[in-house]
Amino acid sequence: MTTTLDPVTEAPPARPEDEKLPLPTLLGAGLQHILAMFGGVIAVPLIIGGAAGLEGPQIALLVSCSLFVSGLATVLQTVGVPWFGSQLPLVQGISFASVSTLLTVVAGNGAEGMRAAFGATLVAALVCLAIVPFFAQVVRFFPPVVTGSIITVIGLSLMPVAAGWVTGQATLNGAPNPNYASGANLALALVTLAVVLVLSKIRATSRMAILLGLLIGTVIALFTGQATWNLAGAAPFALPQPFAFGTPTFALGAIIAMTVVMVVVMVETTADILAVGEVIGTHVDSRRVSDGLRADMLSSAVAPVFNTFPATAFAQNVGLLALSGIKSRWAVAAGGVVLALLGLSPMLAAVVRVIPSPVLGGVGIALFGTVAASGIRTLSKVNYQGNQNLLIVAVAIAFGLLPDLSPSFWHSLPEGLMVVVDSGISAAAIVAVVLNLVFNVLAPGRPPEPSHLAAAPPRLVQQGEMEMLRGKGEH
């Protein structure tokens, strides 16, 4: 690709992210980034709105607001203002990391649950915004053994959501649901998943596999009668109404749980900022990291005002930078503008509402599985020899999955504490951080013989090698 020269200096930009592109290329590259993350952005409000028991128009509002805030957050992160924005080609979207905790807060509580979720998000984001200058001291407590465990739990704990989309509810209005786990719904979900897998294999469509899977699955559902096209009453344009669900409420337990989540989000954003800098070949110092984190937390604090959830960096777009070779932050900023404009159209949100649950379930299997696989990939980089890291991962993941495997496990605890540990992500984060402190930070030294739980794989390898050597007569 030919570098566009500055019209005044006639020299290439000092930073690759400042490259100016022709308008068609700018819009095309921006739209590509939006398509790569669109499915993830709309999935979060669909998950949370459904769990809260909201009606169709209310879920459509959540989707519109999520698109709108994601677009504004992307523009802030890429263009930047003093103290806010890394000025890197970093796409912002509604974070999956918050879903598990928010589900605990909103479950079946309708608008009341949404107000509590928005209040917890607002306070947690402001708390984390305040600690950005000190975050360099906190990051060391979130090494890969901690973040990998947390990300794995995020993906695994969302799998029941995907399964519920496929099967539907067992009862409707107190009566058995005749379509519960029906063969037709299962077939639609599996066909949608197959479409996503096939499109992921094709290079030209791999970055749009989720969005195209939703589209093709919905078209199939329309032909089979499993979806209904209804855009009645949907306006083509409308400004989002602030606090549409009412004034936020503030529950201490929910705030603590969301603060834990937002700290994890800050760790993920830091990693994304550093990764983008490495991919595009630009210098990223602590100031740019801090500015990026401040933009992240400010966007997340504003999000509840516009009826949505924490907006943070989308890691999947980092790979798109390497694939496309387009490093300009202005391309991503253009995509952010398009995303915000899409969020101003209730008609688009109504189109999204047409997507049937089994189609979401088929896509969710791939989407949530990818999150879990990302955590496993992070854990693969952890050193497990001569330490207790395997035990840290094991216990953290176990605590993270307990709320899903046994929903009433923590219900004898006080309500404020229960909200914190009843969220898989919060429980996994707390346990992983504490165990990492105990075994890797505060411990006076690593034991010469770790427990058999942590050391079993290395010891088996060493024993096998010794037997092989002895067979050759070597001692």
UniProtKB/TrEMBL annotation:
Residues 1-20 are annotated as: Disordered. It comes from the Bacteria. It is a multi-pass membrane protein. It holds the Pfam family Xan_ur_permease. It is found in: Cell membrane. The keyword Transport applies. Belongs to the nucleobase:cation symporter-2 (NCS2) (TC 2.A.40) family. Its main location: membrane. This is Nucleobase:cation symporter-2 family protein. PROSITE patterns: XANTH_URACIL_PERMASE. Keywords: Cell membrane, Membrane, Transmembrane, Transmembrane helix, Transport. The chain crosses the membrane at residues 34-53, 59-76, 116-136, 148-168, 180-199, 211-229, 249-267, 330-352, 358-378, 390-410, 416-439. It comes from Propioniciclava soli.
